[in-house]
Amino acid sequence: MRIVLQRVSHGSVDVLDEETGKRDLTFEPQTIGQGYVLLVGVSDTDGDEQIAWLVHKIANLRVFEDENGKMNLSIGSVGGSILSISQFTLFADVRKGNRPSFVKAGAPDHAKQVWLRFNNALRAEGLDVKEGRFGAHMRVDIANDGPVTIVMDTDELMK
């Protein structure tokens, strides 16, 4: 799994109707205040082991400032929320040509199930998690705070 974690002062997502290009009224826009926006990519080899590792890391990551201005507090310590956005383009391969290849991104059915299990595992840690819509054309508003942006790739981090 690949995740781009951004510490935010707020974040939101809505979905666009593929035919009209206007906001899809079947999706209730999701908004968070302080917390993380997670851009989440899943490969075909990802499963429970990757989910568990990432959930532990994200729940305990200390990147929020304490009373002394040091990044020393976790998302739970500050009562933050998470906005989770599925994003297969994190597996883009741009080494050849000018059009990215996405062959390393997970098959949609597998990727959706892993992403949903990941979100539920975060909730099981007591975190407030809101979601975009898997496979949809979304507009994501991110107010990166700091800025703090951390990239996590389980292929690299779990070795």
Task: Characterise this structure.
- The chain is 21% helix and 36% strand.
- Helix 1 (48-60) packs across helix 2.
- The chain contains three helices and eight strands.
- Strands 1, 2, 3, 6, 7 and 8 form a six-stranded mixed β-sheet that branches. Strands 4-5 form a two-stranded antiparallel ribbon.
- It has helices at residues 48-60, 108-124, 154-157; strands at residues 2-16, 30-32, 35-41, 64-65, 71-73, 81-86, 128-131, 137-153.
- It is α/β, with parallel strands linked by helices and 159 residues long.
- Average pLDDT reading: 96
Distance between the termini: 13 Å
What Rg do the Cα atoms give? 16 Å
Q: Sketch the major β-sheet.
A: 6 strands, mixed
Low-confidence stretches: none
Q: Roughly what fraction of the amino acids lie in strands? A: 35-45%
Query: Would you count the extended β strands for me?
Result: 8
* Tally of helical segments: 3
Class from helix and strand fractions: alpha/beta
- Shape type: globular
What sequence of helices (H) and strands (E) makes up the elements? EEEHEEEHEEH
Proportion of helical residues: 10-25%
Summary tags:
159 residues, alpha/beta, six-stranded mixed beta sheet, two-stranded antiparallel ribbon
Can I get a quick summary?
The chain has helices at 48-60, 108-124, 154-157; strands at residues 2-16, 30-32, 35-41, 64-65, 71-73, 81-86, 128-131, 137-153.
Write the layout of secondary structure elements.
Blueprint: E1 2-16, E2 30-32, E3 35-41, H1 48-60, E4 64-65, E5 71-73, E6 81-86, H2 108-124, E7 128-131, E8 137-153, H3 154-157
